Amino acid sequence: MQILRKNFALKILSVVLALGGWSYFRFANNPLITARFDQQLSVPITVIHLPVGYVAKYLDKEALVSIAAPKRGAPPLKPDDVKAVLDLGNRTVGVYNVPVELVAPNAVVQSLSPASVTLTVEKVEQRTFPLAVHYNETGNRAIVTSESNFSPTTVQVRGSSGDLSHVAAVLLNVLLPATPSKFDAMVHPIAVDASGAEVSNVQVSPNLIRMRARFVAGVVR
């Protein structure tokens, strides 16, 4: 009876070990069990080697990168670990279709979108514009400007040749007061197009102008 009990325990142990070994060899190399999902990252597209004095304009600002999942136990990649760049070395004014290059050490790239980017390279220029004052009415037309002055009277506008071509004037926007008063403040000059809309992507220097004015009661007819 004692021998039977000992043999029974050994048999149970043998069955457990056999099942464990079978499970390991059955599932260890099964691709359905060990499959790892690809990792997708959205990374900014940046420009490198662009000659000084030029600017690149393009619409695609992000690249979607699919990377093979890291080996078991390895940490997943972060967006900062992957760079998507456009190499614009020796490119001057013109329209180009440039391939997106990935800098991703120790990563297996499965897919990349977009694979290339169409862009325009323009020259950065600077032009001088005279300042003008634009008075915004408050509804009280009885207030008029008696005197005004500002310094300097001209500004430098810097931007791409395409953006500068839209600049028609540079204005100082001043709100007319509801009652007679004096005005003495720093005002931001704004570059506008022919319709009066602000032109973005240009820099106005100086960016603050001291404006002085005296507002008095006018004669309403």
Radius of gyration: 35 Å
Please count the helical segments.
3
Protein structure class: alpha+beta
Q: CATH superfamily of the largest domain, please? A: YbbR-like domain
Instruction: Please give the largest β-sheet.
Output: 7 strands, mixed
Distance from N terminus to C terminus (CA atoms, Å) equals: 127 Å
Could you explain the architecture of this structure?
There is one protein chain. The chain is α+β, with helices and mostly antiparallel strands and 221 residues long. The chain folds into three domains: 2-32; 36-114, RNA Polymerase Alpha Subunit, Chain A, domain 2; 124-217, RNA Polymerase Alpha Subunit, Chain A, domain 2, CATH 2.170.120.40. Helices cover 15% and strands 48% of the residues. It contains three helices and 15 strands. The chain has helices spanning 2-27, 31-34, 161-164, and strands at 39-48, 54-57, 62-67, 83-87, 94-99, 101-103, 109-113, 116-136, 143-151, 154-160, 169-175, 181-187, 189-192, 203-205, 209-217. Strands 2, 5, 8, 10, 11, 13 and 14 form a seven-stranded mixed sheet that branches. The chain has a five-stranded mixed sheet with strand order 6-4-1-3-7, with no helix packed on it. The protein has a three-stranded antiparallel sheet with strand order 9-15-12, with no helix packed on it. The longest helix is centred in the N-terminal third of the chain and has 26 residues, at 2-27. The radius of gyration is 35 Å and the shape is elongated. The termini are far apart. Mean pLDDT is 84; it is low at 31-35.
